[in-house]
Amino acid sequence: MAPTEVDHCISPKTLDFLIEAAGLHVQASTDKKTIVPEWCLDHQQPRPGKLLIKPIHEPAHRVIKLCGRDDSSWIRKNNRYYSGVRKPAPSVTSKRTGMAKNLSVAQYQRHLVHLMMRIFALRTGASPFTLILDDLNQGSKTLLDELFRRAMSRNINIVYLTFDQAVKPHPYIRHIPIYHDVTGDQVLAEIDRAMKDFHTSIVIVDSLHDLLNHKKVEMAALLNLVAVKYSSMLFGIWHQDVLPATAEADAYTPQTLDVIKYMATTIITCKSFAHMLAIKAAKERSLPEPTHGLLQGAEGIVQCLEANDIRGIVLEAEFRRKSGRPESGTYFLRPSRQSDYNAPLPGMFLGTLKQEFVTLLDLVPSYASKEVTDMVKAAAEEIQSTFDLGLTEKQKQARDGVVLPYYDAQKSMGDAGEGGRILYDMGSEDDFDEEEDEI
User: Fold this and answer.
1) Measuring CA to CA, how many Å separate 403 from each of 400, 408, 416, 418?
2) Per residue in 176-217, pLDDT tens?
3) Domain map of the chain by residue range?
4) Which of helix, strand or coil describes residue 312?
5) What's the DSSP call for residue 353?
6) Which fold does the domain 105-242+254-381 belong to in CATH?
7) How far apart are CA 269 and CA 157, in angstroms?
8) What is the pLDDT of residues 63-98, one digit of tens each?
9) Full-prediction pTM beyond 0.70?
10) Rounded distance, CA 347 to CA 285, Å?
11) 195 partner at 20 to 30 Å CA-CA among 37, 305, 321, 434?
12) Burial of 154 by CB count in 10 Å (0-12 exposed, 13-18 middle, 19+ buried)?
């Protein structure tokens, strides 16, 4: 092999080994760095597509992106549908090469927030069917109002099927009242008519119990119409306070709620923020969780005083992947403000969202603050009893004024004596026989 000059730096030990392995004879006056075989040159040069040394980069800080007033990624422009085949937007998923790495606490929290952000952003492939569970202690009105605002800010068609509301909530919303005498086929026809002129829509049903049991609408037909035919999202509300109607002939048939939970891709349970604080206090004291409303079992109690907290709503969400693996998280959603949205564009009722404000419950200052923890500890130190064990100031003064017998005899020269002794002087009336002790 012909010797070749190379500019790469090689350690002396490696150079001696390579020269010996190649069978070269080098004189003492010859520089060893200028004599390297060609195969060594190919070995030292990096191959295309591979890095011998990976550069170390400092982790960059994540910057929260704020949506502009005319952000094209948020607003669904030209939502009208004219012709063509309806297909959902392709979801970009990165292929994993190897085992998944363990996430830190901050990364896991960002991941959970991102899952809920996809639901509120009303992305087509986020969740075809979202089941919302509420009750008298915490209704879903705050959640529904936020879904309406997000849809109007993105220029998405809204179809609202109502049993409990006869008045149209907003001119932008396509309101379909179904509390009167209509059949299930007529309800599906109205939904089809309201969605056929738009590319993207959301359908919200305020009472799935009445729709399935009274109107006899098949859940599979409704989901096939909304999620399959029009590639849209379906939000259904189920009131947990409504008792299921079970017939004797359907004793072995599963409950309707269990079937719906099996079909749902996301399940959101509404909780009161005040109740969650009470549950946290009970957990800190290792006590069973308190019950509220009908679960208390008390006669006449239907709704507790802390129901429907105005500070916000707690959402216990369960997200189900295509593989069937669930992921759960507890979130806090405060009522939206006018400052959360930009100024609306011409022809729109609401502007784009500036910044996402739904967060995890553990990150809420009023839930995880030190003041709340101190209040929990103070409540734990109090004695729980049906009567008052404390003393008033008058009772404390009377207790201090009580003179105990032979108390002064236990002190000598102003200092405390041995203590615990009671000195007793026998009187003439005491009958004591000294001979009894001798027997």
Assistant:
1) 8, 10, 17, 19
2) 988 888 898 999 999 999 999 898 899 999 999 999 988 889
3) 1-48, 105-242+254-381
4) coil
5) B
6) Rossmann fold (3.40.50)
7) 25
8) 455 566 666 666 776 777 666 666 666 665 555 555
9) no
10) 55
11) 321
12) buried
